[in-house]
Amino acid sequence: MAHTASIAIIGTGFAGLGMAARLKRAGFRDLTLFEKADDVGGCWRDNTYPGAACDVPSHLYSYSFAQNTAWSRRFAPQAEIHQYLRDTADTFGITPHIRFNSPVTTAEFDEESATWAITLKDGSVHVADILIAATGLLNRPLVPDIPGLDSFQGEQFHSATWNHDYDLTGKSVAVVGTGASAVQFVPAIAPRVARLTLFQKNAAHVIPKPDHPYAPIARTAFRRIPGLQRLSRWLTYWQLEPRGAAFTRFPRLLKIADRQFRRTISRQVTDEALRTALTPEDPIGCKRILLSNEYYGALTRDNVDVVTSAITEVTPTGVRTSDGSHHEVDAIIYGTGFKATEVLGPLHVTGRGGRVLHKEWQDGAEAHLGISVAGFPNLFILYGPNTGLGHSSVVLMLEAQINYVLQAVKRLAKGDIAWLEVWSAVQAGSNAALQQRIRTSVWAQECDSWYRTASGKNTIQWPGFTFEYAARTRRLDESDFHLEPVGARARRRSWPPTQEKR
């Protein structure tokens, strides 16, 4: 009697839903997706702050196999992206496979049965043959460790946990941080607060966002003319992809973006002192380049102050800075990003021979192609170490990874091997080459970046083009892996899935 492999997926953002959709199309039905929240969407479910939107054009920031012709703008707002993911889950029949409100705490590989034991927060255990971690990188808000933080008597929250019940109208508000989220929500809230004080540790390079709403006739054309949206997707791809060379091979090309930044700030910020404060000292590109048409304008408002003195403490009534000033505020909003370098976050993963993944990664996370880790059979990571981008859509990277993992699952489904495990030498070799390339990239320049661990290792960015990564993951090379034969330590199975529907 034929059986199907049991597959567990942790997370229901772009990675988890895309993987589940492709597995279902390939005929795998024994799927369980574990979601810590009560809805799908990952970071697009969580980040509901005012002004939240994508900084990659929507036609490219979507699955190639599930195009949406109803985007309202070239750069979709958060609510539309979240709904798109909900629709994807329903369209591909994924929703019935999801266990909501089910955070996973531990995952342990058992060599005897060649299975993963997945323990949930409620203590229940789920057993699966294959474990796919799709937890993402931007899901654990980072709140800075500031003395006196707990003493503040007003309202405080991170941008990723926005308190919509708290009315900011007429309030004095402190914003800590100047990252991608702050660049979006500061212009959205500045007109309605009494005073906004932006505490800036490092200035960001902000350039114009080529955004515009799609006219009704354009949306109708995308819907009715075959291939038009795919053409738009293709043109967008080739508009963005060459920028990868500037980050990784020819940093001098970033001078074009630098000139664009300087033109923008000189036009929008006429006050020389403010313009100087908002001009980064870091080389452009070593941190994320941000997109906004309203940010600099918001900072020139009469009710907005930019403070560059370091925060020394939070008091019960406000924020004190290193110059001795005390800023009394009603609310503090943290736009301080995420714990991105802590891949898989608090999830405790134990592999073959009792290996603990976080101990293996104590010097910085790494995986072969960002997907497979030596010592952890039948574990596959989506949006894993060094698969982030600075120039294009991460969904392209995810689809390449999904295709690669699907091949691995199909290989296991042949039934003659109990597990796949990447050779440690292969992993070490591929990561040594990757880090060597990073050392010649713009990210290696001296600047304080969230791409790096405390020790300085870049565990986030992919130092190349998306088409290069797609080529490397197009075919599963079995010679990169130890293939454990089915035997005494593994249950014999026959897992022939149906062919993937075209």
Helix and strand layout, with pairings?
Elements: E1 7-10, H1 14-25, E2 31-34, H2 43-46, H3 78-91, E3 98-99, E4 104-110, E5 115-120, E6 125-128, E7 130-133, E8 155-158, E9 172-176, H4 180-189, E10 195-199, E11 206-207, H5 216-224, H6 228-240, H7 243-248, H8 255-268, H9 272-277, E12 290-291, H10 295-299, E13 304-307, E14 311-315, E15 318-321, E16 326-328, E17 331-334, E18 348-350, H11 357-360, E19 379-381, H12 394-412, E20 417-422, H13 424-438, H14 466-472, E21 481-485
Parallel strand pairs: 1-2, 1-7, 2-3, 4-18, 7-19, 8-17, 9-10, 9-17, 10-13, 11-12
Antiparallel strand pairs: 4-5, 5-6, 14-15, 15-16, 20-21
Helix pairs in contact: 1-12, 12-14
Could you explain how this protein is built, in words?
This protein is an alpha/beta fold and 502 residues long. The protein is built from 14 helices and 21 strands. The strands form six sheets. It has a five-stranded parallel sheet, covered by helices on one side. It has a five-stranded parallel sheet with strand order 8-17-9-10-13, with no helix packed on it. A four-stranded mixed sheet has the order 6-5-4-18, with no helix packed on it. A hairpin with a 4-residue loop joins β15 and β16.
